[in-house]
Specification:
The structure holds two protein chains of two kinds. Chain A is mainly α. Chain A has five helices and no strands. Chain B contains five helices and seven strands, in the order αβββαβαβαββα. The N and C termini of chain B lie far apart (68 Å). Classes of the chains: A mainly alpha, B alpha/beta.
C-alpha cells in the first residue's frame, strides 16, 4: 500500500508543478489561461497542445499567453494575436472559411449521399 | 439498364483511383511546413541588438531598398550547421544581402561559430529570448524569409536552405524581386 501511494504521489506531482508555475490573481484568468493553452497547438510537436508540450517554443508561447491574459486581453484577442503570426494551424478547432468548408460539411454531404442511396436501394428491393 | 449494371463493376475501380489519388497527395504533403500568414505582409516591426556590437541596434528599416534574405539560425540547431556552409558560399555574390537572425542562442557561442565557419551575414540580429521571433511566426530553425525592396515578406522557407532549394525556388524569386522598383 505504501509503495502504491508513493508511486501515485510521484505520478501526480508533475501536474501540481505545472499548475503552480503561473500565478493568477483571479480564478477566471486561471481558467482562461488553461482553456487557451489546451486549445492551441504547439507547432513543433504538432499533436500536442501548448499546455502539454515541452518544446521551448511552447514554453515561450505559454509565457506570451500568460502575459496577454494578465494584460486583460480577451480570449478572442489572444487567439487573433497568435493566428496573425502562426496561421490557422495553431487552432485545434479549425475556423469556418472557404478553405475548410469541405472539412466542416463534407461528412454531412457523404451522410446525405449514403442515406439517399440506402432509400433508393431499399425501395427498389421492395418493388422487386 | 445494362449500362448501369456494367457501371456497377467499375465502381470499385473508381473508388480505388480516388483513394489512391488522395493518399498519393498525402505522401507529398509536409505537415511540418506550416504556411506563414505573414507572406505578402510588411515585415513585423522590431528593434534588436546586433551580434557584432550589442550597443548597435538593427530594425526592420534595414530591409528597405534591397532584396534581403533573413536567415533564422542558432548554434544549437543541427541543420543550421549544414546550411551555414551553403550560406557562406552564397554570400560570395556581393549583390546578395543576407541578414542573420540569431534565435534563442548564446551570443558568445554565436560569435565563435561565425569566426570559425565564416560570416555570410551583413547584419545579425540577436533575439536571445525568442520574443521577437514570435512576431515573425518563427517556430523552428532554420527558417529563411525573402523580403523585397519595400520591406514586404514575399516568401518563407521552412527548413534547410540547400543548393537545390536555392536553384529551384529562391534564386528565381530573388531575381524577379530585384527587377521590381524600390
Amino acid at each position: 500500500m505504501k509503495k502504491f501511494l508513493l508511486v501515485l504521489l510521484i505520478l501526480v506531482s508533475p501536474c501540481f508543478a505545472a499548475q503552480d508555475y503561473y500565478q493568477f490573481t483571479s480564478g477566471v484568468d486561471k481558467e482562461r489561461f488553461n482553456s487557451l493553452t489546451t486549445e492551441l497547438r504547439c507547432l513543433v510537436c504538432q499533436n500536442q497542445n501548448l499546455a502539454e508540450s515541452n518544446a521551448p517554443l511552447a514554453a515561450d508561447l505559454r509565457d506570451q499567453v500568460y502575459s496577454l491574459v494578465q494584460k486583460g486581453q480577451s480570449n478572442q484577442q489572444i487567439v487573433d494575436y497568435l493566428v496573425a503570426r502562426y496561421g490557422d494551424f495553431i487552432l485545434y478547432r479549425p475556423p469556418l472559411n472557404a478553405q475548410t468548408i469541405g472539412l466542416w460539411f463534407g461528412p454531412f454531404l457523404l451522410l446525405i449521399l449514403a442515406v439517399s442511396y440506402l432509400f433508393y436501394y431499399v425501395r427498389k428491393k421492395n418493388r422487386e | 439498364m445494362s449500362v448501369l449494371k456494367q457501371a456497377r463493376f467499375a465502381l470499385p475501380l473508381i473508388l480505388f483511383v480516388l483513394i489512391f489519388i488522395l493518399l498519393w497527395r498525402g505522401l507529398s504533403l509536409h505537415p511540418a511546413h506550416v504556411p506563414s500568414p505573414l507572406v505578402n505582409k510588411p515585415a513585423p516591426n522590431f528593434e534588436l541588438p546586433t551580434l557584432q556590437d550589442p550597443k548597435k541596434m538593427t530594425s526592420n528599416k534595414d530591409f528597405l531598398g534591397h532584396v534581403t534574405l533573413l536567415n533564422v539560425w542558432a548554434t544549437w540547431c543541427y541543420a543550421c550547421a549544414q546550411e551555414h556552409l551553403f550560406l557562406v558560399e552564397l554570400a560570395k555574390d556581393k549583390d546578395l544581402v543576407i541578414y542573420g537572425f540569431n534565435y534563442k542562442d548564446d551570443p558568445k557561442a554565436a560569435n565563435k561559430w561565425l569566426t570559425e565557419y565564416g560570416n555570410p551575414f551583413k547584419i545579425v540580429a540577436v533575439d536571445e529570448h525568442g520574443k521577437v521571433a514570435i512576431d515573425w511566426g518563427v517556430y523552428g530553425t532554420p527558417e529563411t524569409f525573402v523580403i523585397d525592396k519595400k520591406g514586404i515578406i514575399r516568401y518563407k522557407l521552412i527548413g534547410e536552405l540547400s543548393s537545390r532549394v536555392w536553384d529551384e525556388t529562391l534564386k528565381p524569386l530573388v531575381e524577379k524581386l530585384r527587377d521590381e522598383p524600390a
